[in-house]
Specification:
alpha/beta; 12 strands; 6-stranded mixed β-sheet; 20 helices; 49% helix
Amino acid sequence: MSFLLYAILPEMENRASFLTLLASAALLILGLPPLGLWPLSWMAFVPIFLLLERNDTSRTSWFGISLLIGFFYFGYGIYWLWNYDFTIYTSALLCLIPCFAVLFFSFGYFRNSLKDSTFYYFLAPTLWIILMKIYSLTPLGNIAQEVPFYGPFSFFQIASVSGFKTHGALVLGLNAAIAAGIHKKTRRAFIACAVFILLLVSSYSLGSARLKERHPEEKIKAALIQHNLPAIQLWNISHSREIFETYRRLALEASKGKPDLIIFPLYSLPGDLLRHPDFFTDLARQADTPILIATYVPQVESNRDAGFFDMALLYSPQGTVSDIYQAIQPPPFRRIGETNIAEYKLLNTPAGRAGIFLCYENALERMGRKAVNLGADFFISLSNPGFFNQSFMPDYHWMQDRLRAVESGRYVLRVSPNGYSGLIDPLGRVIQKTSLDKEEILTLSFGTRQEKTFYHRNPDWVFWMASIFIAGLLIKRRRPV
């Protein structure tokens, strides 16, 4: 913190620079839970665009201010990682801090090429789309960068057409147009404001209309079990009998509803349940229902210190492990000896072909595309954020599952040990949802889908349009006068 301040504060050339830093950082943070004042976070970039419009601040100062805004916003936004693992917190923060700085430095680099052109107002949105595409290819994904643009769920429906990054791009475009209108007071700037407002209003209206569509009756039944056992691994090891008794009790209780599938969350279960599956194969036989669990399986039998696999295991009433899914993406920066495979696969269940998300995989939109391209009928999201239930991380995970549903047009069955668990329909609507830190069994009905959304048929169309726009600017800058 002190290093960053000493390096950047001298570059703040005037009082306006400091006020810009405070205003943007404060507005971004006020948009986060628990306050969730999203209209404020949506306007958080107006101050820095105003500073750019003044044209009396150096690029170094823009870059420094943007770095500090990123430091304060992301530093607070992922605060729960501090108590969990300071090294992970620091690594994630260092990767996220440059996000806004890169955006505004690039904006400053290109803006003189456009001057008073109408295309000036599309510069920030196109840069944002390209930046989000780059982050989406990293283990971090886009979750932290997109949170400032969360708001009413009607706006999220744009994800089925162009991905949620387009919504963030529209909000950024409005910020730039408002700043230009305040500073220049030109007709073109006011028209740009009206255009972005019209696009956002249209997005909201169309999204609201989609959300009013009738929810169809579905016939596949599943039981989601939120067992609410402690997330501390040392407790797991010393209470193995209690854990397995809880799993037996809840599975047999859930079986009374005659579900097609019983689903337990990702949880660090004692033992090696891949090589020694007897407990769960016997339990599936007693329940007369397939049982899906997710747990960590030792790479070497009876030696957890040698590393492990993060797996979803499906046990059949016939006494076998009928299918396995192994995670392909570990949580970023978490060095815990997890070995992942390179190729994504579906899990074949009696209900259909399931796309599985283990742990952090639900935060990566490319995982949903992989599943749909392989023919997934629905998604099952299994994670264990129990360490962070006093933070707003469970809300983030829940919202990511809702986004995966909208992007893909698939049902999402989410199961977590301590919450949230529930059913999300193909429009992202919440059909059922548990509370945090409470033992619950949800018996619910869902369906399968095979059709692809426009976004999954054409996932990069907005990115390529943005890339062509920026390529044109690069050519224009290099062309001799």
